[in-house]
Specification:
The protein has a domain at 1-89 and 199-245: Rossmann fold, CATH 3.40.50.300. 37% of the residues lie in helices and 27% in strands. The protein has 10 helices and 12 strands. It has helices at 52-59, 82-87, 105-112, 119-132, 134-138, 149-161, 179-194, 206-212, 230-235, 237-244; strands spanning 2-4, 7-9, 14-23, 26-36, 41-45, 67-72, 75-76, 90-93, 167-171, 198-202, 215-220, 223-229. A hairpin with a 2-residue loop joins strand 11 (215-220) and strand 12.
Length: 245
């Protein structure tokens, strides 16, 4: 059993079993095993091209799987669509943010709640996002494409949270951002963890990711080569040499 956030959980919220994914003739993932328990922050680190984003896209059912199994919230989800996964409580904030640049901040946030019909709950969650992300509150009627890179990243995360996810997949939230903004983004990630949201984090800044996460996996050329508690991976010489500089 896994101890997370002070609670004992004997069933993972998400598990990958021997997951393999092909892109054309290229094997992007091979026999990947991974587990996330409720309330955890788990990070997946590795070099560019290792298969980290592919793993997230497979989990959120954006791409097909060649072999293996994905279990989420007690059910097998290989036959589910990305749209269905949002309804099941999974949100994916992708690399590159992919916000609607010609729409306002408010419209982008409302889009994040497209699978919901509880108007009062949506209204309350909009206000919660503006409390969590004060910059977005100041810019709620601003066109999203005119936001800074850091503000666009905040919007991408807030939009994902509008679906009230049980599991949030975050892909490279610090990519292309100034160091001060990166620290601000990770402070928000820690707030989400404290609020009990389960996260799977793909992040180029391995040191910051491992400092934030409970556990970590190292992905190399489509294979998991190391896994363990984040604090232990921070001290692992192989991780230090390859990813921590």
């Amino acid at each position: 059993m896994q101890l997370t956030n002070g609670f004992m959980n004997d069933r993972p919220l998400l598990s990958l079993e021997k997951l393999s994914v092909n892109y054309g003739g290229i094997q992007a993932l091979q026999s990947v095993d991974l587990e996330i328990y409720p309330g955890e922050v788990v990070t997946l680190i590795g070099a560019n091209g290792a298969g980290k984003s592919t793993t997230l896209r497979a989990i959120s059912r954006m791409i097909p799987v060649r072999d293996g199994a994905i279990h989420y919230a007690g059910q097998t989800i290989l036959n589910r669509s990305a749209h269905e996964m949002v309804k099941l409580g999974m949100a994916h904030s992708p690399e590159g943010r992919r916000i609607l640049t010609r729409q306002t901040v408010l419209d982008n946030l409302k889009l994040g709640a497209y699978s919901r019909s509880d108007r009062l709950g949506i209204k309350a969650d909009l206000e919660q996002q503006f409390l969590t992300f004060p910059r977005l509150a100041e810019r709620r009627h601003q066109i999203a494409g005119t936001l800074s890179g850091g503000e666009q990243q905040m919007l991408a995360i807030a939009r994902a949270l509008m679906s009230r996810p049980k599991l949030l997949l975050l892909d490279e939230p610090s990519l292309g951002l100034a160091p001060a903004i990166v620290l601000e983004i990770f402070a928000i990630i820690r707030q989400l963890r404290e609020a009990g949201i389960t996260l799977l984090l793909v992040e180029q800044n391995a040191h910051l990711a491992l400092k934030t996460a409970d556990r970590g996996y190292v992905l190399e050329a489509g294979h998991i080569t190391l896994k363990g508690f984040a604090a232990d991976l921070l001290e692992d010489e192989r991780v230090k040499q390859a990813y921590l500089g």
